[in-house]
Design goal:
Elements (H helix, E strand, L loop, with lengths): L4 E3 L8 H11 L4 E3 L6 H5 L5 E4 L17 E5 L6 H8 L4 E4 L5 H5 L6 E3 L6 H4 L8 E4 L10 H13 L11 H9 L1 E6 L11 H8 L3 E5 L16 E3 L5 H9 L2 H18 L2 H12 L12 H14 L3 H14 L1 H7 L2 H13 L2
Parallel strand pairs: 1-2, 1-3, 3-4, 4-5, 5-6, 7-8, 8-9, 9-10
Length: about 350
């Protein structure tokens, strides 16, 4: 039997990226899901190929730094709470960041196992015969949140002017792929606080053979994609409706750009390709910084994590571990209880 890849999450957490990775890993290894539990090590088995925390519900497993198998951590929205992400990464052998340019922040703190792992597309959802493109513009994604003010305004303008799918509803992965494969253009409007995001939508739109229209500057250019060759760019979101209208008039050029992008994504930017990157990295033999720490030092990092998560029970358990290993280290960490109290109070008042 093949050694399993252990996902530190429940199957109910397999949305978006986690679903893509679970399906891709299942094609090369057995996949085991281990939800948050005190006996997670027993449930993970004796000799997994990899123990992966896929950035689902927050969880820093007890003694992850002592795991006998290689461990890895995803940072999907790497740009959110970056410094905290760097600190938790010290507990894992490998850290995979989903956005280019952040690797140095981790290496500067001694995280030698950091690797870039950009977003991707599920190959089998898009590798089919061409469909009639009856949507002028396709859209699938969240809206009506504080970080999506620009998105909401632009989508309202696009909906009034162009033939689109129903933009306000939820779409499963297969439905999303069908929408994009039926779309001539897919517009990407990233979150207001990170507009250069090369998110899942970018890769899925290109995999579907639609023309991707996205903001510039874009992380895509750091990943080998070129504006005018693989996607169309906009500078001011207000220009999107007119830009879309112009591209709808340019059938040949639009189709050529979309075709080049589709070929590149399905060749190099699928979850199967990303899994190969992960397995190649794991063979390098990097070990987590925390594997060389004292028992008290590792417990202190766990304590810090649980405090930031406002988890009282886990914080107390980690503090007892610190105290048992080093009373001096425990004394240094006592002030964190003030932060824990403040976080718990803030949560109660929401």
């Amino acid at each position: 039997m093949r050694a399993p890849v252990v996902f530190l999450c429940g199957e109910d957490e397999l949305d978006k990226e986690r679903r893509g990775y679970a399906r891709a890993f299942s094609r090369v290894a057995a996949v085991t899901f281990v939800e948050r539990s005190d006996d997670w090590q027993i449930r993970a088995g004796e000799s997994p190929l990899l123990i992966l925390n896929p950035d689902g519900r927050p969880w820093l497993p007890d003694f992850i730094e002592r795991a006998p198998a290689p461990t890895a951590l995803f940072h999907i929205d790497t740009y959110v709470a970056l410094q905290r992400r760097v600190r938790w990464s010290a507990m894992y052998d490998y850290t995979f960041v989903f956005h280019p340019g952040f690797e140095q922040a981790f290496r500067a703190q001694g995280i030698d196992g950091v690797r870039l792992l950009p977003h991707a597309a599920e190959h089998d959802l898009f590798d089919g015969p061409e469909l009639e493109r009856d949507f002028e513009v396709g859209w699938v994604g969240h809206k009506s949140r504080s970080i999506y003010g620009t998105r909401d305004r632009v989508l309202a303008a696009l909906t009034e002017r162009f033939a689109m799918n129903e933009a306000g509803r939820f779409y499963g992965p297969e439905e999303m792929a069908n929408v994009y494969r039926r779309s001539k253009i897919v517009v990407n409007i990233s979150r207001d606080d990170y507009p250069q995001d090369a998110n899942m939508r970018c890769f899925e739109a290109m995999a579907a053979g639609a023309l991707l229209v996205t903001g510039i500057p874009s992380e895509l250019t750091l990943l080998g994609f070129r504006e005018g060759i693989h996607f169309a760019g906009y500078g001011d979101p207000g220009e999107i409706p007119n830009l879309v209208a112009q591209w709808l008039e340019r059938d040949g050029e639009r189709a050529a750009i979309a075709r080049r992008a589709r070929e590149l994504v399905l060749r190099e930017h699928t979850y199967d390709a990303r899994v190969a990157t992960i397995l190649d990295a794991v063979r390098s033999g990097v070990r987590a910084p925390a594997r060389g720490w004292t028992r008290g030092g590792a417990a202190a990092r766990h304590f810090e994590y649980h405090v930031e998560a406002a988890n009282v029970a886990d914080s107390l358990r980690a503090f007892r571990e610190i105290a048992a290993a080093s009373p001096i280290t425990a004394a240094r960490n006592v002030p964190r209880f003030g932060r824990l109290a403040a976080k718990v109070m803030k949560r109660m008042l929401r």
